[in-house]
Design brief:
This protein is about 40% helix and about 20% strand. It is built from seven helices and eight strands.
Length: about 230
C-alpha cells in the first residue's frame, strides 16, 4: 500500500503514519518497493511468527504425539488452532508432521483452512458456542462442502457425542481427514488430526482410535481431567 492508502485505512494523519512506517522499516517488519514507493510486509514478520509458535504450549506438547500418530496411522498429521474472523473463522496450521512414507510434501505451517470445511475446524467448532442454524450460507470450497448452517449444527452435535470430526473432499478434492479437539485444564486450545487421501477413505477403526488417543493424551498433558472437556459439552 502507499503511504496515503495506509493513512486513509488507519484514519491517521500522514505524518503520524510515516513515523510508524519508518520505525517498522528499521526493524525489517515493513519494506518499501523503491520503484513504486509502496510498502509491504518485511522478512522480520516471519521471525515474529516463529516466536509465536515457540511460545505455544500446545505445539510443544503435540509434537511427540503427532509423530506417534503419524507412525501409527501412516498418514500426515496436522495440529491447528482457530483463527477468529468473519463467519465461523479459519483454522491455522501450527504444526505439520509429514506422512512417514518419505514422500515429497509442501510445508504447511501457517496455512489457513475454513473451519466449517475441515476436520480440525469441526473438532474446534463443536466445543464452542452453538452455530446459528439460520443466516448467510457458508462458503463452498468444493461440491462436497457443507454450506447449510443447520446441517453443520447437526454434524457438530455428532462430534460432541463421539469426540471425533471428519471431512471428505470438503476443503480440497482428493483430501479427507479425521480430527479430535484438544483441551487444557480450563478450555479448548486446538485440535489434532490426520490427513487422508480420499483414495484411502474411509479409514478403519484403528485410525479413529489413534486420533482419539492422541487428542486425549495431549489434553491430559495440558491439564485436562476429562476428554472431551466437560465444560464445553
Amino acid at each position: 500500500m502507499s503511504l496515503s492508502e495506509l493513512s486513509a485505512h488507519l484514519e491517521l494523519r500522514p505524518p503520524t503514519v510515516h513515523g510508524i512506517v519508518r520505525t517498522l522499516v528499521s526493524h525489517g517488519l515493513v519494506v518499501q518497493d523503491r520503484p513504486t514507493g509502496r510498502y509491504q510486509l518485511g522478512p522480520a514478520t516471519l521471525r515474529l511468527g516463529n516466536v509465536y509458535l515457540d511460545t505455544l504450549d500446545l505445539r510443544s506438547r503435540a509434537i511427540t504425539w503427532a509423530e506417534e500418530l503419524g507412525r501409527r496411522t501412516g498418514f500426515a498429521v496436522r495440529v491447528g488452532v482457530l483463527l477468529p474472523g468473519e463467519a465461523l473463522g479459519d483454522v491455522v496450521i501450527i504444526y505439520h508432521q509429514p506422512r512417514p512414507d518419505g514422500g515429497r510434501y509442501m510445508p504447511e505451517v501457517g496455512i489457513v483452512i475454513p473451519a466449517h470445511a475441515s476436520a480440525l475446524g469441526k473438532a474446534l467448532l463443536a466445543f464452542m458456542p452453538a452455530v446459528e442454524s439460520q443466516g448467510q450460507a457458508l462458503r463452498g470450497m468444493t461440491g462436497e462442502t457443507i454450506t447449510s448452517r443447520g446441517e453443520l449444527q447437526d454434524v457438530l452435535a455428532q462430534v460432541r457425542r463421539t469426540g471425533i470430526a471428519e471431512e471428505c473432499d470438503e476443503a480440497v478434492l482428493g483430501e479427507s481427514g479425521l480430527a479430535g479437539a484438544v483441551f487444557d485444564s480450563h478450555q479448548l486450545v486446538g485440535a489434532i488430526g490426520v490427513v487422508v487421501p480420499t483414495t484411502e477413505w474411509p479409514v478403519g477403526d484403528s485410525v479413529v482410535e489413534a486420533v482419539r488417543s492422541a487428542a486425549r493424551t495431549i489434553s491430559r498433558e495440558l491439564g485436562a481431567t476429562q476428554w472431551p472437556h466437560p465444560g464445553n459439552e
